[in-house]
Amino acid sequence: MSYLINFFLVKQRGIFAKRAGNKITYNIFLKQISESLIQINLQANLEMSDRTEDGYYYRDEGVSYDPKDYEEIMGFIESHFENQ
User: Fold this and answer.
1) Could you state, in order of their start, the residue ranges of all structural domains in the chain?
2) DSSP E strand stretches across the chain
């Protein structure tokens, strides 16, 4: 049995900032390996904001390999298992 979960996080900046903030889309793939073992695969897709005369837009940067982009989701997952 497998599950795919998608969600995104927008990191906002100040109202007068040159950039609106970056958007990270997380793909979480859960795959049951055996009855008592589940494999968790994480992928963070980064979109950088930029500004033109017409407003803000997001530029797709692809899959992120920067550990900082995974810290928040890893903390969330770890806190879930600590509370079990």
Assistant:
1) 2-82
2) 2-12, 21-34, 37-52, 55-63
